[in-house]
Amino acid sequence: MRAPARFAALAALLLLLAGCESAAPPPPPEPVRPQWNQLTLPVPPGPTGRVLVRDAIRCGQSWYVGGGVSTPAGDTRPALWRTSDPAAATGWTAAPVDTVNDYYAIRSVIYSLGCRDGLVAAIGAKSGGAHGNPRVRTFYSRTDGTLVAVPSRDFELYGGGRQVSVNHIAGGGPGGWLIAGNRAGGATVWTSPDATAFTIHEDLAPLANSPELTTTAVDTVAVPSGWVVTGGARPKGRIDRDPYVWTSADAAAWTRVPLPGTPDDEQAQRIARTPDGLVALGVAGTAFAAWRGDATGAAGWSGATKFGDTGVGMVAGVDGVAVLASAGRMVVATVGADGHRLWTGSLAGKDWNSVTAPVQVGPGGSTAVSVGGDGDTLLLLTDDGATSGIWASQFPRA
């Protein structure tokens, strides 16, 4: 009886192994497929040209899209569009823009919008000068709806020999407005009570570089307790970055908060407030990533939840984030080796899935994709280097 028993046991083992080999990993979830509605933005007054779209925001009772116009001759000028339609589907008009005869303001393209008390402020730039560096200008809103440029009175405020980058603007924190960016000395912020003039805060510990860390700041958000700036730092002797945020109650004194990291190269590039707290978004190794923290940004940060694939051969990152509280989702725009992609996750920065876009935009320095959102309305801005598009969707609820 021993032989049959041994054969029976062997047969059972073979069946078990066969079952293990035939078990395939579960297929990825089906992409979310919004119903996209293509919109048309009017060309603002001035020479005819191609509309450029770069950022979108809901501020007060209106939607705004910032960008510019590029003429066949290669000239550019700033532009801002707005609508009071809650669904952002109709009623778009070009807002008046006063460039105050400032040389680079006249030629700027707006790339970042912020909101405070129902008024928007913006950052724009135009490359120029002997080295072709971006010549940055900021803009503020008058109560009559006109967007007004702040003329350059100090070349070193955003440019000069220590210039690196001027990234994103936010309003609503203590003191009014804050811009996150970088100078030769590391992470830097600029502040203003009313966006009509900004003051630089560079070489400010612990935002700035130290003997142990080389820091970068990318994005900022206002929170009830003050400000949060997100970015990363490269420790001395290493080539990879670690993810960080910095918090401040007054934009003068800062606290550096490390996010849970790994040996991979990681940077937190964008940040958003959600009903569940803060979510920082960026890259972690060869994937995109989300870190969740509490409402202050000072504590409670989770390890990275990874999604997607950055690919190799180019600088990858998260270009835009939209919080859709009514839909229970957030949507981010990323760029990697395979081009620009859209992803959706929960308001806690988890459960990520791909989102289909109405057009495909490849990688490259002349391309751009971003998103803006509020409630369950999502705006998608695309530019493939030849044609810009703007699309709206009532995003499917979770």
From TrEMBL:
Keywords: Signal
Signal sequence interval, chain numbering: 1-23
Signal keyword on record: yes
Record bears the keyword Signal: yes
Protein name in the entry: Uncharacterized protein
